[in-house]
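Question: Hello, beginner here. Any chance you could explain the protein record under this note? Any guidance would be welcome.
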Amino acid sequence: MWNFLNARFEELLGAILLAVMACISFINVIMRYCTNLSFSSSEELTVNFFVWIVLLGTARAFREGNNFSMNLLYDAMPRPVRKLLYIFGTLCSIIFFAALCWQGYIEVVDEIELEVVSESLAIPVWLYTMATPLFSALIIVRILQKVREDFRTRNY
């Protein structure tokens, strides 16, 4: 499993989703201009896949240490204080994504129990929203991987 998580899973799945989104949007534009009809499901799919891509991009950013951060104050501090700030920031990120994972899980369970279906495709909505808890858990794994690497190289 560790080899799977070390692979570029986010990039591969993100690229596939982006290609699917582009194809769906392109076909919808062609249909709209040629026949004055459009697929009602195209917006549903592209919006939900966009959310998935954002979460995958967040996981990739944390994996590579490219997540958005304000470093002006951090860089001015001595090394022991930077270490504490690094740990504090990491804990805040983990707590945030753990809460997002938990709330996403609750949402998925509610949607399964209520048998909610999407408006245009009439498929279970939990198939879309399951990405929130799954990818939030992936983000936490990526944060922990980066922390392990940073502490091993003393790059904090």
Observations:
- The mean pLDDT is 90.
- The chain has one domain: 2-153.
- Residues 2-153 form one domain.
